[in-house]
Amino acid sequence: MASLQDQLLKAGLTTKQKTRQANADKRKKNKQKRSGVQHEATMQEKVKQELVKAKVEKQAKDNALNEQKKKQLVDKEQVLRIQQILTHHQIKNVEGENEYNYTFANKIKKILLDDNTHKAIVNGRLALCGQDDVTYIVTRETAEKLSMLDENIVFVKNDKLVDEIPDADDPYADYQIPDDLMW
Questions:
Q1: In a domain, 119, yes or no
Q2: pTM exceeding the 0.70 threshold for the entire prediction
């Protein structure tokens, strides 16, 4: 049967250097006992100080690990919350013939929209958001909530709201641009 030191070494709970140090300390203690010198109190104080130091180091390491895990959990919760908002508040069935170009992950993409949705995005009533290579069409209010959580989620949120009623002082009020004119 192996000694306790051998078992601890095999389990990986100690190192060879620590076992050598323990053996050396044991030999010194035995020699001191034989010679009549008592340094037991100083040895106990040294061991206590080492234990306290090891405990403080372990506590600091554990705290750092806990903070890292908490941060990862908060990040994961935020991603899931954003995903839930996007899936619940997305506007579906908007496919049409009008193309709308936008930038997604440094790539220019296009989406085909119907007339009403195209006008709503251009006028700022709707916005384009995206996550994990998927584009979602959401309302302006939803996009504002999402931008508070993560600014990189919202791709297109036009601030230009076109007034449906023309100004009274507009000299070109009689010459309205037709709805079907595409630039």
A1: yes
A2: no
Q: Which amino acid is at 24?
A: A
Is 124 part of any domain? yes
DSSP tally for the chain: helices H, then strands E: 5, 5
In a domain, 96, yes or no: yes
Q: Report the distance separating Cα 118 and Cα 112, nearest Å.
A: 9
Given a contact cutoff of 8 angstroms between Cβ atoms, the answer to whether 47 and 33 are in contact is: no
Q: Does residue 168 lie within any of the structural domains?
A: no
Q: Who's near 104: CB < 8 A, 6+ residues apart?
A: 130, 133, 135, 155
- Is the Cα torsion angle 87, 90, 91, 97 positive or negative in sign? negative
State both tokens at 76: 């994961």
Rounded Cα–Cα distance for residues 162 and 65 (Å)? 52
Pick from 121, 118, 127, 125: which is nearest to 182 by CA? 118
Question: Domain range spanning residue 102?
Answer: 44-163
Q: What's the number of domains the chain is made of?
A: 1
How many Å apart are CA 156 and CA 101, to the nearest integer?
10
Walk along the chain (183 residues) and give the pLDDT tens digit of each residue. 578 778 877 888 788 888 889 889 988 888 877 775 555 667 778 888 999 999 999 999 999 999 999 999 999 998 888 888 888 888 888 888 888 888 877 888 888 888 888 888 888 888 888 888 788 888 888 888 888 888 777 777 777 655 556 566 777 777 776 656 665
